[in-house]
C-alpha cells in the first residue's frame, strides 16, 4: 500500500509539472513572434535593437548559417539547441528557449523531421516567411535497414541528418542563403554570395571524398550510427550494417554481436566507423570479435560553443584523411 501511495504521489507530481510546463509554453508564445507581426510580403523586420536575429536549431545548421551570414551588417545568428547536444530528438525546450524562438526574425531548421520537438511551438509562427527549411532541394537517404535499434526519430522512412556530408551540406547552405534572401531582401546579394562561396568549398570537399570510393580496392564499411550514412554515401562506400539509429550509442546483445561478427567474417568490410568523442561499446566489441579495425569519423552533429567558421570543413578534411588511410587511397 505504501508503494501504491508513493506511485500516486509521483504521478500527481508529474502531472503538476506537465501542467506548469504547458502554462509556461502558452505564456512564452502568447506574444506573437516578430515574423507573425510582419507584413504578408517578405521584408526585413529587425528587432528593437536594430538587429536581424536568425535562430538556427542545431549545431551544424548554426555553422552553415553563420557562414551564409558572414559579414552581413546588423545580422545576429544564435543557436537554439546547445552545441554539444548532438541529435536533438529528445531535446525539451525550456520557457527561455521558447522566448528566444518567439523573438527571432528567422528560424533555420534542418528539416525532414529532425526537429520534431519544435512541431508544436512552430505552429504559432508565420512559417511561410519565418521558417527556412535547409533540406529544401536536398536528396535524403532512406532510413537504415537492419539497425540494431531504432527510436523512430525523423520523418518516416527518411534519414534526417543531411548535414553529415559535404555534398548535402552544400545544398543546405544554398537553401539557407535563398531563404534568408527572401526573409531579409535588403541583404539578399550578400546572403547569396556567401552561400555560393561556402557551398563551393563544401563541394570541393565532396569531390575529394568521392574519389576515395572510386579508387579504393574494397569499399565495405560498418557504421556506429545512422548520422554517418551520408558521409559513407558521399565517399562512395558500401554500408554493410548500422549498429544504432537515434542518439544512443547503445550496446549490442550477445546474439546480435555474434551474428554480425559471423557476417563480417564473410563480407570483410574495411572499417567499423565510430563517432567522437569515443566509439560506442558495441563498436569495440564488434571490432574485437570480427578482427575489423575501427576508427572515429565525425558527422559534426555537435561541437564546441566557440567553433570557428571553418569548423565543419576542418572536420570533413580530417574524415577524408582517415578514410584514405584505411581504404588505402593516396
Report on this structure.
With 330 residues, this protein is of the alpha/beta class. 46% of the residues lie in helices and 12% in strands. The strands form 3 sheets. A 4-stranded parallel β-sheet has the order 2-1-3-4. A 4-stranded parallel β-sheet has the order 8-7-9-10, sandwiched between helices. A two-stranded antiparallel sheet has the order 5-6. The protein folds into 2 domains: 173 residues, Rossmann fold; 116 residues, Nitrogenase molybdenum iron protein domain (Rossmann fold, 3-Layer(aba) Sandwich).
Topology, element by element:
Blueprint: H1 2-30, H2 34-37, E1 52-56, H3 59-68, E2 75-79, H4 95-102, E3 106-109, H5 119-122, H6 127-130, E4 131-133, E5 141-142, E6 158-159, H7 166-183, H8 188-215, E7 220-225, H9 229-234, E8 238-244, H10 254-267, E9 271-274, H11 281-290, E10 294-296, H12 311-326
Parallel strand pairs: 1-2, 1-3, 3-4, 7-8, 7-9, 9-10
Antiparallel strand pairs: 5-6
Helix pairs in contact: 1-4, 3-7, 7-8, 8-12, 10-11
Give a quick precis of the structure.
By secondary structure, this protein is of the alpha/beta class. The protein is built from twelve helices and ten strands. It folds into two domains: 30-202, Rossmann fold; 211-326, 3-Layer(aba) Sandwich (Rossmann fold).
Write out key terms for the chains shown.
330 residues; alpha/beta; Rossmann fold; 2 domains; four-stranded parallel sheet; 12 helices; 10 strands; 12% strand; globular; disordered N terminus
What percent of residues adopt helix (DSSP H or I)? 40-55%
Strand order of the largest sheet: 2-1-3-4
Class by SSE composition:
alpha/beta
Number of helices: 12
Number of individual domains:
2
Question: Which strand-content bin applies to the residues?
Answer: 5-15%
The CATH C-level name of the largest domain is Alpha Beta
N→C terminal distance: 70 Å
Based on the coordinates given, report the CATH architecture of the largest domain.
Answer: 3-Layer(aba) Sandwich
CATH topology of the largest domain: Rossmann fold
Radius of gyration: 22 Å
Amino acid at each position: 500500500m505504501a508503494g501504491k501511495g508513493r506511485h500516486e504521489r509521483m504521478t500527481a507530481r508529474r502531472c503538476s509539472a506537465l501542467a506548469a510546463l504547458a502554462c509556461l509554453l502558452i505564456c512564452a508564445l502568447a506574444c506573437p513572434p516578430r515574423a507573425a507581426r510582419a507584413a504578408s510580403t517578405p521584408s526585413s523586420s529587425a528587432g528593437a535593437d536594430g538587429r536581424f536575429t536568425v535562430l538556427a536549431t542545431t549545431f551544424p545548421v548554426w555553422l552553415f548559417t553563420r557562414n551564409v551570414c558572414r559579414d552581413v551588417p546588423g545580422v545576429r545568428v544564435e543557436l537554439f539547441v546547445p552545441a554539444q547536444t548532438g541529435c536533438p530528438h529528445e531535446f525539451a525546450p525550456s520557457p527561455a528557449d521558447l522566448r528566444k524562438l518567439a523573438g527571432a526574425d528567422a528560424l533555420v531548421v534542418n528539416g525532414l523531421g529532425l526537429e520534431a520537438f519544435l512541431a508544436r511551438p512552430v505552429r504559432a509562427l508565420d512559417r511561410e516567411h519565418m521558417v527556412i527549411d535547409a533540406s529544401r532541394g536536398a536528396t535524403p537517404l532512406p532510413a537504415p535497414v537492419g539497425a540494431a535499434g531504432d527510436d523512430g526519430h525523423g520523418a518516416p522512412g527518411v534519414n534526417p541528418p543531411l548535414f553529415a556530408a559535404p555534398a548535402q551540406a552544400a545544398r543546405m547552405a544554398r537553401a539557407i542563403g535563398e531563404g534568408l534572401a527572401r526573409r531579409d531582401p535588403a541583404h539578399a546579394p550578400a546572403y547569396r554570395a556567401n552561400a555560393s562561396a561556402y557551398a563551393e568549398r563544401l563541394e570541393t570537399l565532396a569531390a575529394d571524398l568521392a574519389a576515395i570510393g572510386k579508387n579504393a580496392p574494397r569499399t565495405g564499411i560498418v557504421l556506429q550510427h545512422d548520422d554517418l550514412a551520408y558521409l559513407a554515401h558521399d565517399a562512395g562506400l558500401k554500408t554493410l550494417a548500422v549498429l544504432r539509429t537515434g542518439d544512443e550509442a547503445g550496446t549490442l546483445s550477445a546474439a546480435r554481436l555474434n551474428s554480425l561478427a559471423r557476417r563480417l567474417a564473410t563480407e570483410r568490410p574495411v572499417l567499423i566507423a565510430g563517432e567522437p568523442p569515443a566509439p560506442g561499446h558495441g563498436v569495440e566489441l564488434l571490432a574485437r570479435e570480427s578482427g575489423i579495425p575501427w576508427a572515429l569519423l565525425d558527422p559534426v552533429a555537435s561541437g564546441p560553443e566557440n567553433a570557428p567558421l571553418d569548423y565543419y570543413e576542418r572536420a570533413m578534411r580530417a574524415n577524408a584523411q582517415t578514410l584514405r588511410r584505411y581504404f588505402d587511397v593516396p
